[in-house]
Amino acid sequence: MSRLTILPHLQTQAVRPGPWTISINEQLVIDEVAKSWDYETPIRVACSVDIPSDEIRADCALAPSDQFGLVVSWRSSSTGLKQRADVIDVSGGGSPVVSIDLDPARVGGILTLSRRLVLLGEGRGSNPDSPTRPGSILWQEAPHDSRKLVLEGDASRFPTEVVDFSGGYVGEPEAVWALYLDTEDLEASAMKAIRLYVNAGHPAVRTLMDVGEEPISAAIRSTLIWDVARQMVLAAVGNDEFVENHGRFSGGSIGEVLEAVIEQFWPDRDILSLRALCEQDSARFEYELQARMRLLEGL
Fold it and tell me: Which has the closest alpha carbon to 236: 205, 195, 278, 200?
């Protein structure tokens, strides 16, 4: 039997987002790679969004008194951190301009910028499908429309060590990599609680570092990133403390990083439904993660 997917409430496609403006050290960035960026260089991002309020209210069947706001947020792939600007009330429509100054110490790897429109306060629309819960998403950019900026090329701030596994100190001699994830204290620093060991003695790792073998090394990188994300998600949803305290972890903690990984690939699921998916339909979890991470895409 085929499954019928029903949205929880009415949404709109009337929002018209404008292009992003990204400045690094007051210099406009027009490429997708910021080659000259370092951890002491400030970043400012800005954008405008056209908000046709009458169309939005009609599409979502909102009451005249209902208010909605624009949320602009960023996420860093290497630190796992995310943050948003202050919510702007755009109930009256217009084309507001939003800007964010990013702390360079909190970002790295691939910087992803996104926008969404949310309900402010309780909705009072008369339609049974009108959004009613504060924070209900009225519109959001599709993941492929989000702006991405590579801050460090292929580099990453993910805690990684390249060691020879044959010494017996970590992993198995024939393994390619080993992820050590300490979730005993979810408020502990992520940089101390996560460590990825890559086996310097494995032929695949030597290929990974060989620029002359780009298609093969790209496939290895893609598989490595997928496997690390998979292990982190499974560790998170299998941890009762994480599930109970989801959304309340401190900035820079291992708990927040795990939240960011889950939010990146399952923004449409709450933590309980994701846990149920892992426990009750593990095959679907596996192929959903492959698809959402675009495993081996472009090869």
Answer: 278
**Among candidates 108, 112, 34, which has minimal Cα distance to 73?**
112
Beta bridge partners of 84: 73
Report the sign of the C-alpha dihedral through residues 14, 97, 95, 68, in that order: positive
Which domains does the chain show, CATH number per domain? 16-150 (2.60.40), 160-293 (no CATH)
Contact present, 191 and 227 (Cβ < 8 Å): no
Q: Tens of pLDDT along the chain (299 residues)?
A: 333 334 579 999 999 998 899 888 878 887 677 766 776 788 899 999 999 999 999 999 999 999 999 999 988 866 667 788 889 999 999 999 998 888 887 787 778 899 999 999 999 998 999 999 999 999 998 776 778 887 754 444 567 778 888 877 677 889 999 999 999 999 988 878 888 888 888 888 877 766 445 678 778 888 988 999 999 999 999 999 999 999 888 877 899 889 888 988 888 899 999 999 999 999 999 999 999 888 887 67
- Dihedral sign for Cα atoms in the order 276, 230, 74, 103: positive
Give the three-state DSSP class for 75: strand
pTM score? 0.53
Provide the β-strand partners of residue 197: 161, 178
131 close to 69: Cβ distance less than 8 angstroms: no
Sign of the dihedral defined by the CA atoms of residues 117, 73, 297, 177, in that order: negative
Please name which of 133, 15, 131 lies closest in space to residue 71, comparing C-alpha atoms. Answer: 15
